[in-house]
């Protein structure tokens, strides 16, 4: 069954069209990368998936229910692009609070803190953390709910290569265990870690593909090159 | 989830000891200033002294003002930091969130009221005919009114600058018209009508009643019900301003 089905999704923000009729489906248990340049509409699409974005028209179905249904709040986890955690609480207090909202206990909260590599910093105030640590604290607050669908907006920004690899390994493990993940990034290098790629450009779906297929279609072993080739081809410019 | 939210708000407060210290000490210090101001003023026989009248009223006004400010800033921070949007994607319901705030700041206000009442009655010889527990109860209900109006006001503020300016707008008219600065019976008719619909009027009336009579009169409960009812109404309106979907 598909975890997410999007049909003819049109979103306007301010007076501008941001998404122009997107359609795609995401099967359960896949790690899907949402890639595209800054301003292409990645965050807007993710907001539509979790049901906080007002949409003009179209349908977004998540785990069999319309996006944003009350029943989904337990089953969908969302991490915003800017870390949204309480700066005047410690990492552990933040995660324990969100754990309580999802009906989980202190043990699960501590495990989630350890999962994002913050066990050492658990007693630090979030305001006193580095930018990358803050993002991970925000991530832990979503992981602790063990949702069926995780929507992560650029969770690896500002992280060093080691941590980034660790987090992607963790995402892959979650997907292997049956969780559906939608992860946005504008670093094409991260695309190779995904099962599936949605490439967004100016609010249109440029491609619904896989890393292997993107390399073949773009005629380059380098995903960034391949993506650029695809962009040029779609704009009618010879590669 | 309400309890978890109240606990979280109190934990945030605990990480800010200076705010706690000010919350607990400032009302007592200000009352001390009023006490010194009126200490040597003669009281005509058979009348309540100025300090006994005004000081007692202040016990209801401080928590209202302080909690209004604290809550509107706290809620504005939830909105601007993105935590509110995130909370609205979790199973936490909107009433549970607002109730959590109400309980947390209500508890803080109870502590503040106990300290201030203790200071006022021991150090400044504030005399109250009725029960001091009732004074604390009225102070807590006033604080919850402040919380509720603060939550509501924060929906109309886009920055901290705007949020603090709502304080004079919401609080001062109620203070001017509550009967403390001029007896309500002597106000122009229309002002009295305005005063009749402002919740602080009833809070002040309840306190005056406790100050006058050693019995718990029905009027006190009616006054308290008016204040609490307004608080519930404001909380319901505030819940309506929390939009799950935004553009
Ligand atoms: N609150 C808003 N009001 C009006 N327009 C907005 C708002 N937020 C975003 N937009 C516009 O919507 C478009 C898509 O923005 P979005 O945040 O979805 O992009 P993005 O792909 O996530 O970019 P980035 O990689 O920089 O995060 C942009 O052109 C942006 O200017
Ligand atoms: Mg974005």
UniProtKB/TrEMBL annotation, chain A:
<dbReference type="InterPro" id="IPR003439">
    <property type="entry name" value="ABC_transporter-like_ATP-bd"/>
</dbReference>
<dbReference type="Pfam" id="PF00005">
    <property type="entry name" value="ABC_tran"/>
</dbReference>
<dbReference type="GO" id="GO:0005524">
    <property type="term" value="F:ATP binding"/>
</dbReference>
<dbReference type="InterPro" id="IPR027417">
    <property type="entry name" value="P-loop_NTPase"/>
</dbReference>
<dbReference type="GO" id="GO:0016887">
    <property type="term" value="F:ATP hydrolysis activity"/>
</dbReference>
<dbReference type="InterPro" id="IPR003593">
    <property type="entry name" value="AAA+_ATPase"/>
</dbReference>
<protein>
    <submittedName>
        <fullName>ABC-2 type transport system ATP-binding protein</fullName>
    </submittedName>
</protein>
<keyword id="KW-0067">ATP-binding</keyword>
<feature type="domain" description="ABC transporter">
    <location>
        <begin position="4"/>
        <end position="227"/>
    </location>
</feature>
<keyword id="KW-0547">Nucleotide-binding</keyword>
UniProtKB/TrEMBL annotation, chain B:
<dbReference type="GO" id="GO:0046677">
    <property type="term" value="P:response to antibiotic"/>
</dbReference>
<keyword id="KW-1133">Transmembrane helix</keyword>
<feature type="transmembrane region" description="Helical">
    <location>
        <begin position="220"/>
        <end position="242"/>
    </location>
</feature>
<comment type="similarity">
    <text>Belongs to the ABC-2 integral membrane protein family.</text>
</comment>
<keyword id="KW-1003">Cell membrane</keyword>
<dbReference type="InterPro" id="IPR000412">
    <property type="entry name" value="ABC_2_transport"/>
</dbReference>
<dbReference type="InterPro" id="IPR047817">
    <property type="entry name" value="ABC2_TM_bact-type"/>
</dbReference>
<feature type="transmembrane region" description="Helical">
    <location>
        <begin position="58"/>
        <end position="76"/>
    </location>
</feature>
<feature type="transmembrane region" description="Helical">
    <location>
        <begin position="20"/>
        <end position="38"/>
    </location>
</feature>
<feature type="domain" description="ABC transmembrane type-2">
    <location>
        <begin position="18"/>
        <end position="245"/>
    </location>
</feature>
<feature type="transmembrane region" description="Helical">
    <location>
        <begin position="163"/>
        <end position="182"/>
    </location>
</feature>
<feature type="transmembrane region" description="Helical">
    <location>
        <begin position="132"/>
        <end position="156"/>
    </location>
</feature>
<feature type="transmembrane region" description="Helical">
    <location>
        <begin position="97"/>
        <end position="120"/>
    </location>
</feature>
<dbReference type="InterPro" id="IPR013525">
    <property type="entry name" value="ABC2_TM"/>
</dbReference>
<keyword id="KW-0812">Transmembrane</keyword>
<keyword id="KW-0472">Membrane</keyword>
<keyword id="KW-0046">Antibiotic resistance</keyword>
<dbReference type="InterPro" id="IPR051449">
    <property type="entry name" value="ABC-2_transporter_component"/>
</dbReference>
<keyword id="KW-0813">Transport</keyword>
<dbReference type="GO" id="GO:0140359">
    <property type="term" value="F:ABC-type transporter activity"/>
</dbReference>
<dbReference type="GO" id="GO:0043190">
    <property type="term" value="C:ATP-binding cassette (ABC) transporter complex"/>
</dbReference>
<dbReference type="Pfam" id="PF01061">
    <property type="entry name" value="ABC2_membrane"/>
</dbReference>
